[in-house]
Amino acid sequence: MKVTSNKLPSTMPSSTNAADAASKTKGLEKSLGDMKAKSTADLGSSSKVELSSRAQDIKKARELATPSNDIDEAKVARLQAMIDKGEYKVNAEAIADRLLDEHSKMPG
Hints:
By secondary structure, the protein is mainly alpha-helical. Helices cover about 65% and strands about 0% of the residues.
């Protein structure tokens, strides 16, 4: 394919159009901010939000997946030492039982 023209497409904004667009964007952002502030103020204390059971499950999963700050450093060190010495034994039957118990608690 051979290019025969160096003209820019008419859809390309010129520098003045870009400045106008930026100005309009700032105006829209301010309007949206004002609307958000008004809608939040209108809610008051009578607002109520109910989460579906699925949304509650997702929230719980996120909380469980988020690392907590209450790590038992002594226990971690003890287990690490056992692993390093080859003394830590995995009880596969207990793990399987626990997995099945947790799976049976999960909603359909």
